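WARN retry 2 of 3 for item q-0093 after timeout on previous attempt; input resubmitted unchanged.
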Amino acid sequence: MLTFFLPLLASAVLTLLVLKSAGVHSHLSTDGDLSGPQKFHARPVPRIGGVGMYAALWLMVAWAHFRGEAGIARFGTGILLCGVPAFAFGLIEDLTKRVSPPVRLLATSVSAALGVAFLSAAITRTDIPGLDLLVSTGLGALLATIFAVAGVANAVNIVDGFNGLSTMCVSLMLMAIGYVAYEVHDRELLFWSVAGVGAILGFFVWNFPAGLIFLGDGGAYFLGFFLAELGIVLISRYEQVSPLFPLMVCIYPVFETVFSIYRRKFIRSVPPGLPDGIHLHSLIYRRVMRWASGQTDARHLTRRNSMTAPYLWALCTLSLIPALLFWDSSRMLAACIVLFGFVYVVIYWRIVRFRTPRWLAPHRRRRLFGGRSRRRLTARPTK
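OK item q-0093 returned
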């Protein structure tokens, strides 16, 4: 229990300290840009929430040392040190706004390479014809691992658009990895999966629903790195775990990224790295939640922001259910990955064409029903 509650308490307290000291560092840490295509907050907010989580995980390293669990402490020290480039360059961007996306991706790639060297976190099998031949070589495994880790880190950063969105999704994904680690009796991976969830939820209480602090690039890149590393270590240690299991776990942010690249490059004919405001989560905010568009005060916009995330939590959960059911079957996971992509595209195109499914917009049914009721009442004369 302490593996969960200790990092939760530490992260919550440290994040609160960041909030209380905002007056000192707000000129560096505050996101005051309210006009960008991916900006949905109503007031300037600190964006260095990753600091509390990262520090809380270091506290868990000390806790593991104190309990005499040298293996767990050693693994935690390794993953946190390997994650320094990803976290540091993201944090520098949060403070200076001067670190370009390619540089941040390069830093995450360095973290991934360090993970291969010091954690043996390398993708050496994929169960995908042709790709297995590539990763059977040392260089191929290194390149595939760097590509996968950097991709997941960038994907988590992309879906970090609304209060509680990316953090709750990553928490659910870590729970899935922790479950399989429990099934294969790996105490190290189970410990760090649970500790990661605790550290994230300690930040979450200040981020959702009020949006008092943001995760920031430092937090998002580190969480993506942390998630990817645990998944890769899991499949590298246990052959009974399908190599497609980590991909199934992360398929929501990964497919969001791949689809966004396709949409920008081949449909809109713009650079794939150009930010835009038509990600799935952005469309849900603007169109599924459009019933709130008439209100512009900060309180109402924050509420609308936070009410967007649960839609994507549900989508994320849809990918985790088959991941937990078929974690040892590559065939079933491959079929579920294809099915998820199909469902995602159908939902996206329905919303983008203003044909939002009724089950996604229950408020519309309530409004229509209420409108008909009022018309009937006014049409009937009163005695």
